[in-house]
Amino acid sequence: xxxxxxxxxxxxxxxxxxxxxxxxxxxxxxxxxxxxxxxxxxxxxxxxxxxxxxxxxxxxxxxxxxxxxxxxxxxxxxxxxxxxxxxxxxxxxxxxxxxxxxxxxxxxxxxxxxxxxxxxxxxxxxxxxxxxxxxxxxxxxxxxxxxxxxxxxxxxxxxxxxxxxxxxxxxxxxxxxxxxxxxxxxxxxxxxxxxxxxxxxxxxxxxxxxxxxxxxxxxxxxxxxxxxxxxxxxxxxxxxxxxxxxxxxxxxxxxxxxxxxxxxxxxxxxxxxxxxxxxxxxxxxxxxxxxxxxxxxxxxxxxxxxxxxxxxxxxx
Amino acid sequence: xxxxxxxxxxxxxxxxxxxxxxxxxxxxxxxxxxxxxxxxxxxxxxxxxxxxxxxxxxxxxxxxxxxxxxxxxxxxxxxxxxxxxxxxxxxxxxxxxxxxxxxxxxxxxxxxxxxxxxxxxxxxxxxxxxxxxxxxxxxxxxxxxxxxxxxxxxxxxxxxxxxxxxxxxxxxxxxxxxxxxxxxxxxxxxxxxxxxxxxxxxxxxxxxxxxxxxxxxxxxxxxxxxxxxxxxxxxxxxxxxxxxxxxxxxxxxxxxxxxxxxxxxxxxxxxxxxxxxxxxxxxxxxxxxxxxx
Lengths: 316, 293
Prior knowledge:
The complex is a heterodimer. Chain A is built from 13 helices and no strands. Chain A is mainly alpha-helical. Chain A folds into 2 domains: 2-74, no CATH class; 88-309, MetI-like fold (Orthogonal Bundle). In chain A, helix 7 (145-159) packs across helix 8 and helix 11 runs antiparallel to helix 12. Chain B has one domain (38-47, 89-290): MetI-like fold (Orthogonal Bundle). Helices cover 70% and strands 0% of the residues of chain B. Chain B is an all-alpha fold. At the A-B interface, helix 1, helix 6, helix 7, helix 10 and helix 11 of A face helix 5, helix 6, helix 11 and helix 13 of B. Chain A: One of its GO terms (cellular component) is plasma membrane.
């Protein structure tokens, strides 16, 4: 187990290094560059820009800049925001909670709803229920998340007036109930795509488990269908879903970015867009790394959980 | 049932007519085909039937609801005809979708076939790069790229391609890896055929089924991604319309002019659903395991 853990950890670190390399190159090779926003200030001469570049170390070869950035990042110094001079880690930290809250809620909704639909579709394979949800899932996968958000705001906030159209809490309120009311719409919108994906995978997974010998044995022992389903099938078909949850993370994170924009949710997605608008390279780079880090940690955690609950993988 | 045949002969011989028959019988795929075809026809021939040009500004007719006069889908905040803009936007959005399909499928196939054929260190490096790209949320990477590059339709297509080739690479790699030691490949080697011939003429055609499926789904994905980044203001820039940038300003008028948001959104959903239905049908048509269902 320890060896498996270490080898997976090593792989993740290599991957993270590659990710940082790609991210850094992408940002720095793009035209404009970190200095473009300084060049916009009136009265700025080329000489002054060169001076700033030299001060910030931007006149060195790209490889040196990368290694320097990497060395600082590993030691927890992610640089300072060009916008307000705050440390990048502090800026990201203050937006992390909102995004994790949104993603966590959405994932909870999508896993429970998706698993339920998937199991039911598998048990009633070929029924109208099964076919309807097959088609619905494909349509759900085709709706742009942000547009679904706009429609939801139009119906539930503007017309029915049931829920707030944006923000995380009401200024001056901030009770748990207030948070929940603000959370319902964005979390449901973000969950939609994942409910579709989860239900499809859960259906396949359940069908695979149902056709296995131990299920037939359980039925042959005289257990009722319901008992076999709850005790033997559901648990086993959920195992591959843990891995899937890890693999889905980049999608959920990307969806959160767009959902946050529509619902003015104060999370990392909004921060990312704002920073892009200001060409705030250190924050953009920090967010790219944070998102990759979240994804890799998520995948690692998923692999660990699977290894813990499924001895077949641990022993290999 | 085809298993015994396909062990000796490359599978492509069987793909043609049988797959086509299965595809045509696939109800969802046919619905998808109708959706995509009618939308394409509307986008390319619709503009000739409309009374207004997509750039014609009529400030007296701002925010006209759908059905006002000849404005079947209403007008936008500048009094431009939404139907005309929608059709032109469709041409651009779909062109981006198909361009991405071509570019991403090519990159993915080359990476996949090379790492599948060579294996070992080459595959290890290439597939780790694939993994690294998959670790980014693609919207983040896309926005980071688009924000710092002057985005025209060509650039947008290239950027979306850069985040869409990994799926094909994985599929092709797996397929090629499973075939590279088969007899027909050994025979080709003994005949003295070049490595690139073996890779692209002998091995790659065997993965054509999964590649076509992935390519179809890539069109759907690309249309969605273009909509995302254009909605956020970093994609295709006005006055050139795209389905995404038509939605860009729609949120602020949601209460007074909801059709601004509804019309382009429905167009995107119909197009993407159509391509996804077709992809699903193709998958069933090419996959002999699910053919019996």
